[in-house]
Design goal:
With about 160 residues, this protein is mainly beta. Helix content is about 10%, strand content about 30%. The longest helix has 12 residues. The relative contact order is 0.24.
Length: about 160
């Protein structure tokens, strides 16, 4: 059987390594009902989330947990990272960009499976940053996601 989902948390400080702690935004922005990261670093008033994931509900793609396409820091990457930050009550760091690269670290498939190991297209990007749950596009599988979001950096 799949592992149980992590317990919901209400503090960024509680987000732990290996996607273990899921932050539940309140209110939700853009159809996001859960946020996780492989790891995080705190530098002053800046948070750097490595390999973030978003759990979506009622959006333009099927409900579920998704890895994120970062687009080498292109507009789709910026809109996805911005949505991640907004759900934490933060803002994307001005000038945020990331290098190109492929896939998320091992262990991601269990995170995005949502109890269905046969689920495909578990990576996504967002082409808008409006409050409605629109603009999400499925983009390959998490483990092989092209130009994956290796980090998302947010400011207080």
């Amino acid at each position: 059987p799949p592992p149980p989902p992590p317990p919901p948390i209400s503090s960024i400080a509680e987000m732990t390594a290996n996607w273990a702690g899921m932050f539940v935004p309140s209110p939700s922005f853009g159809g996001v009902v859960g946020l996780r990261a492989h790891s995080k670093a705190i530098i002053g008033s800046t948070y750097k989330f490595h390999y973030p994931t978003m759990q979506l509900q009622g959006t333009s793609i099927p409900d579920g947990t998704y890895a994120m396409h970062g687009g080498c820091g292109n507009t789709n990457g910026v809109k996805g990272c911005s949505t991640f930050c907004q759900n934490l009550g933060l803002t994307i760091t001005a000038g945020w960009t990331i290098p190109c690269g492929t896939g998320y670290p091992s262990g991601i498939n269990a995170v995005v499976a949502d109890g269905s190991p046969s689920r495909t297209d578990t990576c996504m990007y967002r082409n808008t940053d409006v409050a409605a749950g629109t603009g999400y596009v499925r983009y390959n599988q998490a483990a092989t996601c092209g130009n994956s979001m290796s980090n998302c950096v947010c400011d207080v």
